[in-house]
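Below is the record:
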Amino acid sequence: MFETSFTRSDLLILLDGAWMTLQLTFWAVLIGTTGGLVLGWVRNTLPRASIPLGWVLDLFRTIPLLIQFVLANSLNSILGLNWPIMVIGCITLGLYCAAYCTDIVRSGLDAVAPNLRRAARSLGMSYWQELRFISAPLALRVAFPSWLNMTLAAMKDTALVMWLGLAELLRSSQHIINRIQEPLLVLCIVGLIYYVMSWVIAWCGAQLERRWNTP
C-alpha cells in the first residue's frame, strides 16, 4: 500500500513557490519585452549602426544564465547595492529575455513587406503612423508565437534562481525532499505544477491567436 509523508502543508509550500515563479516570470518577461521592443526597433531601423548592440546582446544569449545570476549577485555585493534577491533575479532574467526578444521583434518587423510600407507612405501616412497601424500589427502576428515560446522558456529558467537562495518552486521542493526523503513523488508534483502553469499560458496564447485569425 502506498504511504507518504507528503502533507497538505507541503503542497501549500509548493504552491507558494509556484506563485514566486509566476512573479519572476511576469517581471522578467515585462522587462524583456519592453527592452526587446525598443532594441528590436533599433536593430530593424539601423541595422549597420546597431552592430555593436548586437554583439552586446550576443553576450547575454551565449553566456549560460546560471553564470549571469552568479555574476549579477557578485556585482551586487561588490558595488554595495544591497538589492534584494528578487530584484537581481528579475533584472538578470529580464535582460536575458530582452536579448532574445530583440531578435523576435526585429524578425517580425523584417517580415513586413517593403511594398506595404511604401504604399502606406504614399497614402500620406507619417513614419510613426505607418509603424503603428501597418507594420506593428503585422509584425506582432509574426512574432507572437516566438514571444510565447520565450515566455514559457523564461518560466522554466526561473528554476536557476534557486542558486541565489530565492524560494521559487524548485527550491521549495528541495526543502521538502530534504525533510521527507521522497524525491520522486515531490518532483513529479513539481513537474505537474510546471505543466499546468505552462498549459494555461499556452492556452491563453492560442486563444489570442484564434481571435486574431477570426475574420
User: Anything to note?
Assistant: The chain is about 80% helix and 0% strand. The longest helix spans residues 8-45. The mean pLDDT is 91.
